[in-house]
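README: folding subset

This subset contains proteins for which both the sequence and a predicted structure token string are available. Records are stored as plain text. Below is the entry for UPF0335 protein CHU93_14105 (79 residues), shown exactly as it appears on disk.
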Amino acid sequence: MSDENVSASQLRLFIERIETLEEEKKGIADDIKDVYAEAKATGFDIKTMKTLVRLRKMETQARQEAEALLETYKAAIGL
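--- output ---
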């Protein structure tokens, strides 16, 4: 088997794996949308929930810095 055939075979396998993962990612994204829709139907604010999810992903120090900067900016414009 030549190097070209091996490379083409490897490339095809990588592409197929990526395609499978992309399908799984879409399924998970749909599941997340369903959970947000369920939460909204229960009366929760989705925008706030998404903010909480984003904040929980952050490192503690980065979150504290972002919150401090937000407070500084709010104070600067009189909020």
